[in-house]
UniProtKB/TrEMBL annotation:
This is RNA polymerase sigma factor (Sigma-70 family). SUPFAM superfamilies: Sigma2 domain of RNA polymerase sigma factors (SSF88946), Sigma3 and sigma4 domains of RNA polymerase sigma factors (SSF88659). One of its GO terms (biological process) is DNA-templated transcription initiation. It comes from Saccharothrix algeriensis. InterPro entries: RNA_pol_sigma-70-like, RNA_pol_sigma-70_dom, RNA_pol_sigma70_r2, RNA_pol_sigma_r2, RNA_pol_sigma_r3/r4-like, WH-like_DNA-bd_sf. It comes from the Bacteria.
Length: 181
């Protein structure tokens, strides 16, 4: 995908090559920022997570076992850093899926929205980890390319569309039938 492999860039960065480090940051900065923002962090907290993720990478340049999966490693590290910030800050905001046309929803409207949210969440949690990661990135990081999402999840880019389609179909079936399996 890239002219120069991640293994070589990581090794050069470890030896102090600023150009190699800058290339790594250039390749993956948007991914790291998007994952941080997908956790509904404030811009300042997301910037802290972004910076912390790069610090963790700098401290682990020689410990990356699978350099070809650097995007997945960065995604996981960013997610962990974001969750740590949410725990420390105590700012986790509930996701409000209610976006009514009318300004004042009725109690029935709120109950229906709550039921829909609950059913959707239950169905989502029964998906495989791969499906949850794909759907999460597609929903909360729409500016990422298919290639970037595929790399973050660890599948070939040409497999992402069909895999995402299968994941959505499983989610639809589980919503319709109300089954968890």
């Amino acid at each position: 995908m890239h002219d120069q492999g991640n293994a070589e860039l990581l090794a050069r960065a470890h030896r102090g090559d600023r150009g190699a480090w800058q290339e790594i940051v250039h390749r993956y900065s948007r991914l790291v920022w998007t994952v941080a923002r997908s956790h509904r962090l404030s811009p300042d907290d997301a910037a802290d997570v972004h910076q912390a993720t790069w610090l963790v990478l700098a401290e682990n340049l020689t410990r990356i076992r699978r350099p070809e999966r650097l995007a997945a490693w960065l995604t996981t590290t960013t997610r962990r850093e974001a969750l740590a910030v949410l725990r420390v800050r105590g700012r986790e905001e509930p996701l409000d899926l209610w976006e009514p046309e009318a300004e004042d929803p009725t109690p029935e409207d709120r109950a229906l929205a709550g039921d829909t949210r609950s059913r959707l969440w239950r169905a989502y949690t029964t998906l495989t980890e791969r499906c949850r990661r794909i759907l999460h990135l597609v929903a909360f990081a729409p500016e990422l390319s298919f290639a970037q999402v595929a790399e973050a999840v660890g599948i070939p880019p040409n497999s992402l569309g069909p895999t995402r389609g299968r994941c959505l179909e499983v989610l639809r079936r589980r919503l319709v039938t109300g089954s968890a399996g």
